[in-house]
Amino acid sequence: MTSPPAPAIPVPEARPLRADARRNRERILKAARAVFADQGIDAQIDDVARRAKVGVGTVYRHFPTKELLLDAIVREHFDAIAEMARESLQDADGWAGFCRMIWRAAERNAADRSICEVMTGRDKSDVVVECGLADMTAELMARAKAQGAMRADAARDDVSVMMIGASAVMQALPGEAPWRRHIELMLDGLRAS
Questions:
Q1: β-sheet bridge partners, residue 191
Q2: Residues with Cβ < 8 Å from 114, sequence gap 6 or more?
Q3: How far apart are CA 107 and CA 120, in angstroms?
Q4: Is 9 left (phi over 0), alpha (psi -120 to 50) or beta?
Q5: d(CA 95, CA 142)
Q6: pLDDT value at position 114?
Q7: Which of 180, 94, 186 is nearest to 140 (CA)?
Q8: How far apart are alpha carbons 36 and 75 in whole angstroms?
Q9: Who contacts 61 (Cβ-Cβ below 8 Å, separation ≥6)?
Q10: What is d(CA 23, CA 30) in angstroms, rounded to the nearest whole number?
Q11: What angle do CA 116, 110, 140 make, to 5 degrees?
Q12: Tens digit of pLDDT per residue, the chain (193 long)?
């Protein structure tokens, strides 16, 4: 004799945040972006809370660990770069669109110490795929190749290597000139002969 199936246990739906909680979350993210950009990944939650003008407990209610807060910032960062790629896809010139996206992404990375540290120390390829940036980069590259502007053997992973390298240069050498030179050399290496 088989027993009857267990009754389904209702799963509570995720409730939307109250207006004040939503405002606090946005203040925390805004503060965290500034603090991490300035201090890097070793920034303290206390500094984020102080800048957001909330208690440390409020930060931890929204982001139980510093890693989760940093992940949220990284995700926002790659979402913004994905939007840049989406805009670059509007350019009829595949090479120009690709280069514009690379330069804009590099400039955004250069302004954020924590992003440079994340780029050189952690694999975030899952985020790049999830936000659509990987596919849009591949599409920009395919257009540039089809138009004869990009070397045929260029691969999407080449872009990751280029941007990780630029982030390392941004950390190691002061000023804009070194990382800009790095990007110029990398783009020249991807250009068709």
A1: 150
A2: 36, 37, 39, 40, 41, 43, 70, 73
A3: 16
A4: beta
A5: 10
A6: 93
A7: 94
A8: 14
A9: none
A10: 11
A11: 90
A12: 555 665 666 555 555 667 777 888 999 999 999 999 999 999 999 999 999 999 999 999 999 999 999 999 999 999 999 999 999 999 999 999 999 999 999 999 999 999 999 999 888 899 999 999 999 999 999 999 999 999 999 999 999 999 999 999 999 998 999 999 999 999 999 999 8
DSSP state of 150: B
> Cβ neighbours of residue 95 under 8 Å, at least 6 residues apart?
144, 147, 149, 150, 191
Q: Start-end ranges of CATH 1.10.357.10 in the chain?
A: 66-190
Token couple for 139:
């599409």
Place of tokens 């503060």: 31
* Residue spans in the chain of domains classed CATH 1.10.10.60: 19-64
The CATH number of 19-64 is: 1.10.10.60
**Domain 66-190 grouped into CATH 1.10.357.10:** yes
Q: What is the pTM of this model?
A: 0.83
CA distance 138 to 144: 10
